Amino acid sequence: MTQLKRSQRPKHWRGRILRYWGGNLRHYALTPGDGESVHDSAYREVGRWRVVAGSGGGA
Fold it and tell me: Distance between CA 48 and CA 4 in Å, rounded?
């Protein structure tokens, strides 16, 4: 999934970042190796995401 830096960012900003990030997922095949950095509205990097191969067990 993704890991955001939790420094002093208010919860509403983290939610906004995740909504924007989620909307862009349609541009990726979501195959192992896909990934990118996640930026806030000031274009500062606040995290990264990548797809890794799993065991296929699901949750």
Answer: 7
Question: What sections of 9-52 are H helices per DSSP?
Answer: 11-24
How confident is the prediction along the chain (59 residues), in pLDDT tens digits per residue?
A: 455 555 556 667 777 777 777 787 888 888 999 988 888 778 888 888 889 988 766 55
* Residue 6, CB-side half-sphere exposure with 13 Å CA sphere: 3
- What are the backbone dihedrals phi and psi of residue 36, each rounded to the nearest 5 degrees, phi first? -170, 165
Structural domains in the chain (count):
1
Domain enclosing residue 19, as ranges: 2-50
CA distance 46 to 59: 27
Residue 45 lies in a domain: yes
